[in-house]
C-alpha cells in the first residue's frame, strides 16, 4: 500500500483501519491506521498544480515527514514508472501517456522522490469533479 504523510491531504476516509507491523522487532506496531484516499500536489514548469491521488493509502499525516508510494501499484494503474537512474531509455519519473503528463523524480543519494506540497482538499476535489487533466491517480481504481 501507499503511505500518506505530512504533504498529503485526506479526500475521503474508506471506513477501514488496520494495524501496521514493522519489519524489525525493535519497532512498535502502529494500531488503528486509517485507509484513505489522499492527495498531494506538485508544481511543474507551467505553474499550475498537478495532483497525485492515492485511492488506498495508509494515513500517517504529520506523524510521517515523508510519504511512500508503492511502485507496483503505480504500474498497475497504467502509468510508466522509472526509478532506475541508470536506464538509458527512460527518464526518471512517472509518465501518464494517455494525458501526456510527466512527473520528474529526483535522486538524492540512494533515495528517489519528489518534493510535494499539501493541497487544499477542496481544490483537488474540484479538479476531480471537473475532470481536469492535472490529476494523476497512483492506483488502478478510481473511486471518484
Annotate the secondary structure layout:
Blueprint: E1 2-4, E2 9-20, E3 30-43, E4 49-59, H1 71-76, E5 80-82, E6 93-96, E7 101-104, E8 106-108, E9 111-113, H2 121-129, E10 135-137
Parallel strand pairs: 1-4, 4-10
Antiparallel strand pairs: 2-3, 3-4, 5-6, 6-7, 8-9
Descriptive overview:
The protein has 144 residues and is mostly beta strands. The chain has one domain. The protein is built from two helices and ten strands. The strands form three sheets. Strands 1, 2, 3, 4 and 10 form a five-stranded mixed sheet that branches. A three-stranded antiparallel sheet has the order 5-6-7. β3 and β4 form a beta hairpin. The longest helix is centred in the C-terminal third of the chain and has 9 residues. The chain is globular, with a radius of gyration of 15 Å. The two termini are 19 Å apart.
Instruction: Determine the fraction of residues in helical runs and give it as a percent range.
Output: 10-25%
Structural class: mainly beta
Runs in which pLDDT lies below 50 for 5 or more consecutive residues are none
Total tally of structural domains:
1
Q: Output the radius of gyration.
A: 15 Å
Taken in chain order, the helices and strands follow as EEEEHEEEEEHE
Largest sheet features = 5 strands, mixed
Shape: globular
Strands, count: 10
Query: Alpha-carbon distance between the termini?
Result: 19 Å
Mean pLDDT: 89
Number of alpha- plus pi-helical segments: 2
Kindly estimate the percentage of residues that lie in beta strands according to DSSP. Answer: 35-45%
Amino acid at each position: 500500500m501507499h503511505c500518506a504523510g505530512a504533504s498529503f491531504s485526506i479526500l475521503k476516509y474508506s471506513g477501514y483501519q488496520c494495524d501496521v507491523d514493522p519489519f524489525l522487532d525493535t519497532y512498535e506496531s502502529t494500531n488503528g491506521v486509517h485507509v484513505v484516499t489522499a492527495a498531494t500536489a506538485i508544481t511543474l514548469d507551467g505553474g499550475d498544480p498537478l495532483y497525485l491521488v492515492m485511492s488506498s493509502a495508509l494515513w500517517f499525516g504529520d506523524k510521517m515527514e515523508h510519504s511512500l508510494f508503492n511502485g507496483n501499484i503505480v504500474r498497475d494503474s497504467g502509468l510508466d514508472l522509472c526509478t532506475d537512474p541508470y536506464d538509458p531509455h527512460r527518464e526518471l519519473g512517472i509518465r501518464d501517456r494517455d494525458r501526456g503528463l510527466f512527473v520528474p523524480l529526483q535522486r538524492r543519494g540512494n533515495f528517489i522522490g519528489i518534493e510535494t506540497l499539501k493541497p487544499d482538499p477542496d481544490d483537488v476535489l474540484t479538479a476531480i469533479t471537473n475532470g481536469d487533466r492535472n490529476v494523476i491517480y497512483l492506483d488502478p481504481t478510481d473511486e471518484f
